[in-house]
Amino acid sequence: MLKQGVNKFFDSALQQLHEASQTLELDSGIVEFLKTPKRMVIVSVPVKRDNGEFNVFMGYRVQHNNARGPYKGGIRYHPEVTLEEVTALAMLMTWKCAVVDLPYGGAKGGVACNPKEMSREELEKLTRRYTSMIAEVIGPLVDIPAPDVYTDEQTMAWIMDTYSQLKGYQIPEVVTGKPVSVGGSYGRREATSRGVAITTREIARHLNIPLNRSRIAIQGYGNVGYYAAKILHEWGARIVAVSDSKGGILDERGLNPEAVMEHKKKTGSVINYNGAKTITNEELLELECDFLIPAALENQITEKNADRIKAKVIVEGANGPTTPEADKILYERKIAVVPDILSNAGGVTVSYLEWVQNLKRERWSLEEVNQKLEEKMVKAFADVVSYGKKYETNMRNAAMILAVDRVAEAVNLLGIWP
Ligand code: GLU
C-alpha cells in the first residue's frame, strides 16, 4: 500500500533507517520489520459544516512500533496530510522516544483538512468524530495521542472527553498535551521549545559559541517557534528574524518575541511588525546567523538551498525540515545539524511526564517538570555525542544509530511471535 517515490519525506525516513541499520549490521529481517508500521488505520471523517453542507475528510493513525512501550505521537491537521507523511512521522516518533529513552514506541495521526478555514464548532465535530473512529486502536496503555501541527490543548481536551464518554469514565491518560485544568502538565505547552532551547545551549557549549551573544533566526511562529524564541531570548540570545506561512521579519537589533506574538494575534501574521524589515521564508533560511531553527514543516532545507545556508548550526524544531541530500551538503560545508529526533524531543518528554502524573493521579510543580526535562535532554544530547564519536559520524546519523540500536535490541529481546 505504501509506495516509495511518492513522498520525499517518507523516502528520507526509510533511507535514514537503511543507513543506520547498515552501520549496526542489523539482520535484514529486523530491518524489514522496522521499515513497516505495525498498524495503519485510515478513516473517513464526515463533518456537517456551519453552512449545512457535508464534507468528508480523510484521517489516519499509523502505529509504527511498540517494542519499547505503548505507541506515542501527535495528531496533525493540515491540507497536505497523507498516509505516507503520517507513516514517516510515526517512524520518527519511534526513534525520538528511543533517543530520549522514554518507555514508548512511535505513532502519528493526521486529518487532511485546512483548520484555518474551519470554525471552532467544525473543528470540534471533526475531532470528536475522528477520535470515535480511532477509539478502538488508541488507549492509555496502547497508543497515546498528543498535539502536532495545528492541533492544540483544546483539541486534546475534546479527544479526552470523547474517549472518556465512549468508555463511561474520565480517562485523562489517553492523551497528552491537555489543558492543565483537565489533567495537563505544567510546562507541556512550551516543552518542545524548552527542549529546542536546551539542545541549542548544549551544542553552543560543545562548539564554543557563546549563546548570550548569538544571533538566531527561527522559521515558523507557531507553538514551537514562538516559545523557542521566548526562552532563548530570556537566556540572552538575540532573535534577529522569525517567520510564519505569510512571510518573515528581520531586525538586526533583535526582536521582542512576546511583542511579535501580540502583533501576530492582532493581524494574523508576524509580517509588518513595528520597524522590522519584511523578508521571505526562503531569505530567512539563508540569513547569516549563529543558529537557524526551522520550526515549521518538513522539507525546508533541500539540495536547492543547502549551498546558501549561512548559519553556523541548525537546530531542528520541526520534524524532518532537512532532506538527506541537504544533510550531506551541510556536512561537507561543516554546518552542524542537531537532528529533530533529539532537538524537538522535549514535547514528547513532557508528554511522558504528563502521562505518568495522570497514571499516578499526581500533579507536579513546573520546577519539577522542567528539572526532569532538563535531565532527560542533557542525557540524550550526551548519548548522541558519544555515539557520534564511537561511529565517527554527524549528529543525525549518531541519533539514528542510537535510536535504531535501542529499538532493535527491544525487538530482538521480545522476539517475533509465534
Ligand atoms: N507532536 C510532537 C512531536 O512530534 C509531540 C508528540 C507527543 O507528545 O506525543 O514530537
TrEMBL record:
Binding site for NAD(+): T192, N223
Protein family according to the UniProt entry: Belongs to the Glu/Leu/Phe/Val dehydrogenases family.
Organism of this sequence: Caldiarchaeum subterraneum
Domain Glutamate/phenylalanine/leucine/valine/L-tryptophan dehydrogenase C-terminal: 185-415
Residues that hold substrate according to the record: K72, K96, S351
Active site: K108 (proton donor)
Species lineage: Archaea, Nitrososphaerota, Candidatus Caldarchaeales, Candidatus Caldarchaeaceae, Candidatus Caldarchaeum
Database matches in Pfam families: ELFV_dehydrog, ELFV_dehydrog_N
Example GO molecular function: glutamate dehydrogenase (NAD+) activity
The protein's name: Glutamate dehydrogenase
